[in-house]
Amino acid sequence: MPLTATTRRALVCVVDDDLSMREALPSLLVTFGFAAQAFESAEELLASSQLGEADCLVLDVAMPGMTGPELQKELQSRGDLTPIVFITAHCEQDMASRLVAQGAVACLCKPFSDTALLAAVTSALAAN
Length: 128
Prior knowledge:
Oligomer: single chain
Structural class: alpha/beta
Number of strands: 5
Strand order of the largest sheet: 2-1-3-4-5
Number of domains: 1
Strand content: 15-25%
Largest sheet: 5 strands, parallel
CATH superfamily: Response regulator
Radius of gyration: 14 Å
CATH class: Alpha Beta
CATH architecture: 3-Layer(aba) Sandwich
Order of helices and strands: EHEHEHEHEH
């Protein structure tokens, strides 16, 4: 379906302390047809009005301050069930399985392909 002035694009919020990821991922998500917003930290996302508008979150696992999994627990405690896709440079099968068991849609290992990100976000939005 073509986008019209009244069609709202799904908003994907990216939280990653790595500047290159915060710049690259939103640009990629926009090319896929989503709206995207980047945040440097979990705390920055929590303080943002964008959190209530987000249709999907892409969270780095390891960040200074509140980690991605800690943010997931905080959101769950607030009753916020926005679907989450985790991304990590430290890929461990046990961790990825645990995050999915705790409610994440996927856990992608950096570097991941454009198609893997698109599939994970599309799956997250379908689950929402």
